[in-house]
């Protein structure tokens, strides 16, 4: 009798701990798709196959706005007449490299509004959930990273290890 009570108490504690961890983790990740909550995304900019796929995805999905040479749109710091910000560069002159791979992944997949938690946030950046697979999103971001100068990549590596 005593033993079964102890076991019950243990099971309850375990269930509570699991529930707590799940809630906390969902909160941190801030994303809605449970399959991506298990581990943080790390970019694979030294994997030639991944980078080659990413270059193709970039050309077909991103270059129209972010530029063939990742240079962004002209005057990208100044909002247009519609109040929306132009597409920033993805090269070393922009701030893409200030964000770790996981943040870039979530931003590209779920969109800016979802990531900052404001559904009304107006932005010209599309969300790629259902358009690109997770592997394609990781590939395109890995390609972008592969074009940065060595010291910027090294700084970004440090960011990624912080996750
Ligand atoms: C229709 C135009 C358009 C396309 C296509 C587009 N973007 Fe963007 N992107 C934008 C705009 C505009 C912003 C700035 C958003 C803002 O600040 O509101 C942006 C911002 C971003 C940012 C944030 C950069 C930062 O420094 O915070 C990332 C990352 C990004 N885009 C990745 C991509 C990727 C990867 C693709 C292709 C899969 C892509 N974008 C395709 C318009 C576009």
From TrEMBL:
This is Cytochrome c. Residues 1-31 form the signal peptide. Keywords: Electron transport, Heme, Iron, Metal-binding, Respiratory chain, Signal, Transport. Residues 49-148 form the Cytochrome c domain. The keyword Metal-binding applies. The keyword Cell inner membrane does not apply. GO terms for molecular function: electron transfer activity; heme binding; iron ion binding. It comes from the Bacteria.
